[in-house]
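Hello forum,

I keep getting stuck at the same step: I have a sequence, I want structure tokens, and every attempt I make locally crashes halfway through. Rather than fight my setup again tonight, could one of you with a working pipeline run this one for me? It's a single chain of 203 residues.
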Amino acid sequence: MKNIDKIQTLLPLGYLYLVILGIAKEGLYYYQIGINIVTYSSIMDILISPIATITSHLIFTIPILLLFIFHYNLPKFLLKNDDKLWVQKLFDIKKNYENKDVTEEEKRNEYIFVSVKMLNSFLFSLYIGFGFGGGYFLSKKIKENKLQYEYKVNYNDGKSENIHLIGSNTTYYFFLSKGNPAIKITPVASIKNIEMTKKKSFY
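Reply #2:
Ran it on my machine without issues. Output:
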């Protein structure tokens, strides 16, 4: 029961951390193309940002899932292998193994902390890296006119145009029209639908 209570206490904090990382990633991504995404985001957009980010691309989803699986099982691995020198050095747990007064429960709690700390570091690097890298490559493609216009947007007034879709949230679409280097920020309510005409690129 104690472990369940701890998990219930940590889950909101963990999700808050993911929300902050999601905002940071989106902020870095859009900042490099001149957009302050926070000003165009609702509270709902901010709250669902971790889920939206994790499911945005397979190249992001798969590493995230692998990270969670690995770090979930890491404490068990450390308990079984903390006598090995390479494990002690790699995870900095030598002091726990040498201290004979430390109980197995105390070791387990310490290894859970080690796992959470490592997971936080990897998630931070992954989110910030994807935000910075994605924004950089997108801005470069815009400058070099190398975008793929894989969508067709149909407006409520009957007009349509081919676009490169940068992203969207609950209120706005962000895209570039073919032949126009200016980024358009268009309310969702003004668009009838968007058709995918080509296979979507990663950035």
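The mean pLDDT is 87. If your local run keeps crashing, start a new thread with the error log.
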